[in-house]
Amino acid sequence: MDKKIKDLIQNLKSGKRLALAQIITLLESERIEDQLTIDQVVDELTMIASTKKTFRLGLTGSPGAGKSSLIEKIGMNFIKRGLKVAVLAIDPSSEMTRGSVLGDKTRMEELSAQEEAFIRPSPSRGHLGGVSVATHDAIKACEVAGYDLIIIETVGVGQSESQVADLVDMYTLVALPGAGDELQGIKRGLLEKVDNVIVNKFDGETKVAAQIAEKQLKSSLSILRGQDIPIFLTSAIYENGIQEFCESVGLFWKTQSEAIKIKRQSQEQRWVAHYIDQFLRREVDQIMESNKGLAAGLEMVKKGVRGSRDVAREFIVNLLK
Ligand SMILES: Nc1nc2c(ncn2[C@@H]2O[C@H](COP(=O)(O)OP(=O)(O)OP(=O)(O)O)[C@@H](O)[C@H]2O)c(=O)[nH]1
Ligand SMILES: [Mg+2]
Prior knowledge:
Blueprint: H1 3-13, H2 17-28, H3 35-49, E1 55-60, H4 67-80, E2 85-91, H5 94-97, H6 101-107, H7 109-112, E3 117-123, H8 133-144, E4 149-154, H9 160-165, E5 170-175, H10 188-193, E6 196-199, H11 207-225, E7 231-233, H12 242-255, H13 257-290, H14 292-303, H15 308-320
Parallel strand pairs: 1-4, 1-5, 2-3, 2-4, 5-6, 6-7
Helix pairs in contact: 1-2, 2-8, 3-8, 4-12, 14-15
The structure holds guanosine-5'-triphosphate and magnesium ion.
């Protein structure tokens, strides 16, 4: 490891924000020449992070459900308990423009002004439907930098739910008032994975609809899971229900450290497969760019003389030879 990186890790350990931002940028790098360094950095971060009693909370829900508004309140709640809070917001729409970054900052205005808070929007890249492996690594960087509570915000799209579930100690669905789970586009896969649900916007005109959503989700969850999944009715605007949710996070964090440890161990094992997915994809993309056989195949697809499936399969067969 070169001296620059060693110094960076040293600064990270002493809690310097700039070092944290720089390390996360490195972890997000897709440059081939950075990958070996990233592997070494992540190994080191993993070792240091494993000694910390942190908590990783994931909030997933449709755009506009109120995730950022809730995180603002949840974050402030834990900062008032004397803890440090990091927020990693994964935004699929921000890939090109980093569009809603500003939106997120204004939704988390009070939190982002705190000395004890770190907020990092990351564009989702790659092919994993919203979460990149960099997020898994970035959590550890936040922990090494001394953050106690790490909150991950994701929009539950694509295939990302199992990956998000593998990132966090507690996985929370943020649902909107009104329509049942089908109409809200909440996927079965997500309902199967979450540890609890927040029905937000339990206020004003949407108050009654929130209660209806709670009832519907309760019955869907009991059929699907055969066990009680806690549901919280909240208003991020009026700060209702937030305290109860934070209490339950705090209780779980405090009393379930052994269960959390075991959960993280099996998550870490599953990350081997997630990393393989990502690494393979990256290698294959590279090969695809310069592969003559594939280029010829693509030409034939264009002329309509060969099928696309056929060309794809031939490419893979040749690759694995
Ligand atoms: N009435 C009401 N509005 C809320 C509540 N929470 C959030 N909102 C509003 O809902 C809109 C979306 O809130 P955000 O916190 O940005 O939602 P989000 O889930 O983070 O949205 P994305 O990041 O775009 O996916 C904003 O206009 C908020 O002011 C709530 O509890 N009650
Ligand atoms: Mg948001």
